[in-house]
Amino acid sequence: MAAVQGGLIDTEEEKDIKTEPANDGCGNNNNNNTANDGRLLNASPGSISSGGSNKPATGALEDQQTLLAVLQFLKKNNLSESVEILRREAGLSEDTEDSKGLDSSGAGSGGAAGNVDSESGDANSLLSRVSVSSSAVSASAVQAPSKAGAGEDQPDVNVVLSAYSQQGDPALYDVYYSSLKKFIESVLDCHRAELSQVFYPLFVHMYLELVYNNHENEAKAFFEKFSGDQECYYEDDLRVLSGMTKKEHMRGNETLLDFRTSKFVLRISRDSYQLLKRHLQERQNNQIWNIIQEHLYIDIFDGMPRSKSQIDAMSGSLAGEAKREANKAKVFYGLLKEPEIEVPLDDEDEEAENEEGKPKKKKPKKDSMGSKSKKQDPNAPSQNRIPLPELKDSDKLDKIMYMKEATKRIRLGPDTLPSICFYSFLNAYQGLTAVDVTDDSSLIAGGFADSTVRVWSVTPKKLRKVKSAADLSLIDKESDDVLERIMDEKTASESKILYGHSGPVYGISFSPDRNYLLSSSEDGTVRLWSLQTFTCLVGYKGHNYPVWDTQFSPYGYYFVSGGHDRVARLWATDHYQPLRMFSGHLADITCTRFHPNSNYVATGSSDRTIRLWDVLNGNCVRIFTGHKGPIHALAFSPNGKFLASGATDGRVLLWDIGHGLMIGELKGHTDTIYSLKFSRDGEILASGSMDNTVRLWDAMKAFDDLETDDFTAATGHIHLPENSQELLLGTYMSKSTPVVHLHFTRRNLLLAAGAYNP
Amino acid sequence: MADREERRFAEVPRESVKLMAESAGVELGDDVAALLAEDVCYRLREATQSSSQFMRHAKRRKLTVEDFNRALRWSNVEAICGYGAQDALPFRSVKEGELFFIEDRDINLVELALATNIPKGCAETMVRVNVSYLDGKGNLEPQGTVPSAVQSLSDDLLKYYQQITRAILGEDPHLMKVALLDLQSNSKIAALLPYFVYVISGVKSVSHDLEQLNRLLHMVKSLVQNPYLYLGSYVRSLVSSVMYCILEPLAASINPLNDHWTLRDYAALLLSHIFWTHGDLVSGLYHQILLSLQKVLSDPVRPLCSHYGAVVGLHALGWKAVERVLYPHLPAYWANLQAVLDDYSVSNAQVKADGHKVYGAILVAVERLLKMKALSLSPGLSPPPEPLSEWTPVPLPAMYCELYSFFGDSLAVRFSTGPGFGSYPPCTPPQPNDARKDPPGPAANPDTTRKMPQLTANLNISPRQDGSPRTEPPPPSLARSRSSSSRSGQRSAGPSRDVFPKARFTTPQTGPPAFSFLIGGRQMGRRCQGRRPFQTIFAPTPPLSAVLPRTYAHKLPVIGRVGKPVRRWACSHYSLHLPL
What we know:
The structure holds 2 protein chains of 2 kinds.
Chain A: H1 10-24, H2 31-40, H3 60-76, H4 80-90, H5 94-113, H6 125-130, H7 139-143, H8 157-162, H9 170-186, H10 189-196, H11 199-212, H12 216-226, H13 235-243, H14 247-250, H15 254-261, E1 264-269, H16 270-283, H17 286-295, E2 296-301, H18 308-314, H19 345-353, H20 358-368, H21 393-407, E3 420-426, E4 432-437, E5 443-448, E6 453-457, E7 463-466, H22 469-472, H23 482-485, E8 487-493, E9 495-498, E10 505-510, E11 516-521, E12 525-530, E13 536-541, E14 547-552, E15 558-563, E16 567-572, E17 580-583, E18 589-594, E19 600-605, E20 609-614, E21 620-625, E22 631-636, E23 642-647, E24 651-656, E25 661-667, E26 673-678, E27 684-689, E28 693-698, H24 699-708, H25 724-727, E29 728-733, E30 741-744, E31 750-755
Parallel strand pairs in A: 1-2, 3-31
Antiparallel strand pairs in A: 4-5, 5-6, 6-9, 7-8, 10-11, 11-12, 12-13, 14-15, 15-16, 16-17, 18-19, 19-20, 20-21, 22-23, 23-24, 24-25, 26-27, 27-28, 28-29, 30-31
Helix pairs in contact in A: 1-2, 3-4, 3-5, 9-10, 9-11, 10-16, 11-12, 11-17
Chain B: H1 14-23, H2 30-57, H3 65-74, E1 91-94, E2 99-102, H4 109-114, E3 126-134, E4 137-139, H5 148-151, H6 155-169, H7 173-185, H8 193-200, H9 210-225, H10 234-247, H11 260-277, H12 279-282, H13 286-297, H14 304-316, H15 319-342, H16 349-377, H17 386-389, H18 396-407, H19 409-412, H20 478-484, H21 496-499, H22 548-555
């Protein structure tokens, strides 16, 4: 991780180190750690977790240990003043500190003997990992946090890898693995599926240990022998591994660092776990036991073991499944209350002219908007949970337009499917990389590989620039049509090209008020463009690596970006530095989306997980696993309750945000899904893919089926029905045009966009 | 490393690393090279891996050079300067040196700067909208049609199209020539290609009009020769039009006065030209065409002109096609042809004339087959025989015997036989495995005791030596060969002589070795009967002097030519116009 963030300022780097165990550890109980951190570092703009300090600590012992570890760290760096402060605030005496060695080792052994779930060293596992002794055979030795040497305060590659330096007999790895395999194959069917989860992480770690210790031939033999047993969805990772046969190669390999820095999470029922433990202890199979202790996080639950299909549905990510604790935090997924806007009277007249029964129409409309009614949604965050920009007059006008359009909206359903219009980008020469459409469907923009952003007007209204300053001074500012007068008629054209980036533009997003456009590019910047002057206003620097996606908040002002540096950043348009940094993904962040209430941000990643982040405090509140490939599309349902995600594996997964569960799997696409969109009322989900099709899914049915289910949110073990075919309402071919973007107009006409590839 | 059984990825051998090091002036030990090679492989894989991410985000399926460059740049590798190419670079190999390289042609800047055909700028990127599905069902347009904006033609192009088609199909031959010439060299007509192809596909509707068919074929030729046109999938349509002219019993051929033979010859010529120049596009069609030719040939119901077309078509596809399709089929076909030729009734006269045409075509095809085969077998000449090894061909002597049994001396007359040039002792073949002929089988030849003429010269070098046009240098200009070819077959001395290994003819002459051939076997004269009934006893007449054979040869009223120069190889010499 340090390698990736080399360009960041120091404070952030240190914070990353601290947040790492937070992600590793169980839940939020080590928030004190990060809180302290924030205080110490004077809360830089990027300090995520300053809000987390008031959370109650769950385990006193762990907390104390955490504090001790921090103390030790500070001492190492001669930060005596900070040490004093920390000691005073935490109420720790020097004695406690001295006796910590005993404490922690005791706790460590307890954890090893009993329950891995309460494994004590989590908070300072990084420090402890650094100091793994070469002959570690017992778990207690592993947990001793006392030996953190100087110069190891940053987890540079060497340190991270050094955990592999323990020397076992390379010839025996084969035997160990085989005997475990034999054991697992011989256990009862109900346990076999669960225990088989151990294979993949064990295999990888054993292979890497062999490679790290220069047993190249043994490593190859090991790989040859057992790689075939692994699940097919790990194929890509295995390919990377197979190429890596030298210790030198391990340095700087990001995939590998991911594997080391994060514990692979498995969910196993208590019965199965006991079986495994007993077996390993009986056989004195310490090699494997060590790996399980060190590199695996086994999330034990009480109850029925899961079936193979249940496991397969959730696994596939780079670091195993999400811990159950990770998805326990409360998420306010409801929508914010819409401000009251009086529909002006002249509007009524207009409607009357159209001979539409206005009074009748209006009421059902209000009902249909349900969540936007005057009553506060119980699941919604408070209106001022995060500060949102005030509505301007123009925004109010737009809202009125929106409501008027909404009355003409077609109610979609399985019987009334939307019409589809296709916007084909012609002569794009394979260069179209991103598309966005304004909410009112008046503008369409494309990002191109040649670093340009092009904006088209799709209405007869041409795009015009504002006049130059000199010309503007001549305008009579009191006139009624001043807004019209400021526009330079000479510049009117159907499209405008925005130059400024120095690399392909991978993500673009219109602001809700259509005054701005964001673009993110390979050059590491996000740029804000004015659609009044068609010039670049700001270049937001911070990612330093390609920025794969960016999106405006539905309320404007804020925007989120994510890229190759694995960190998603929250920005405000008037700050040149990010307000929040969301770190935790183990690989590139490939797509970013705002929740409709703007309080949360979802990010999809190449590590095959989706994370939901709280904008308020920067915490990761949901981790969704189950995709088998990098995620390239995300969409929130309009009511904010559900999330849909699409990946290179061609599957769409549906998630319940409130419960943190996977609730549906839509199979049908044969190639990467690049775009997802719910219809305005959320009845239909449209997905667009590289396979040149648009597919429509019955979202209502998918969600309804679930709600009638008696789903045991407690265990989180869902059983997905195989109903993709029932939910698929239609497959629509484009004309050899991959579907890059989908958009529902305010009247529920579906717009699709892509570049024609002859 | 290298001896791993299952290879998951390409590996750079240590030899390559050493070679690279040497070129940079560094001497590497074996172990160092091995280590380096392994590391290079790993780094390459790593870069490939990360480059695929750029591809995915660009929402493409094709990995480009740019993607790879970006991956290198972001992993802090020294940037590779220069421009990436959108298209794949051709990867070539040199057989002798086992050398593989990327073709990197020098660009003549001067030529480029002074070029008159300025490439048309790329069209503006634009957005077009169309309603694809109304209410989620029913298409307004059929699936897969190209958005109309792509094909919308500018007024200029439309005018051009109209003028050109009018000129080509019109009355004025001069105008036609100008139009064809322009079609051949205009760099800006890519957008019109589908229209022209459509016009050409109209051959089926004008099968009664030889003139129009000819013009359409000329149009094909011009399009094929235009270096700025990428025919793409349209080449299929063109090929099918050409095949129509070759094979179909055209309405025009009902009238014996119509010279549809020439049309077929020309179409076959075109076919070979297409295969020649656009081999990469039509390679998938090759077997399909072979099959359809075979089908026509084996269908006795088809008229003889169709058979003729099939034979010239096969001939056009190269001697291998002849060997694979025509040769095995010959015994069966021969019976039918023989019947036609032996019928002297008046009513059969027309058919018999057609039969002679077919006969002549087969003879020419077979002759070339023999020559090329002999050539490919002789060790001194390229290509090496290995291309033949995958298929089990009939050995040359056996083939010659069998063919001789069909054609008799009229086949032999096409090769110089008997004693070679003065220095050669009689009856000694120049190459042991080259052309030595065993006596023909007794069943085939009634007169087994007679000494068969010996095949000694097979020096006609055709540009297509192994029947695979794709690997060959560009073909001779079709236009030139066409215009200067004449049916009478007066052969002119050509540059092909230089190709001949002079050592084979240890002539006492001092000048350039005059290539000629000696006739063993009876001449085929006006009476045109070269087939079996006319096989006669023949006493070879040795040439009197070294100079004489040449003049002698010139006077021969032979069918076809043997010493054709390279540029003429594809001429319509199979149109044996034999007056009966």
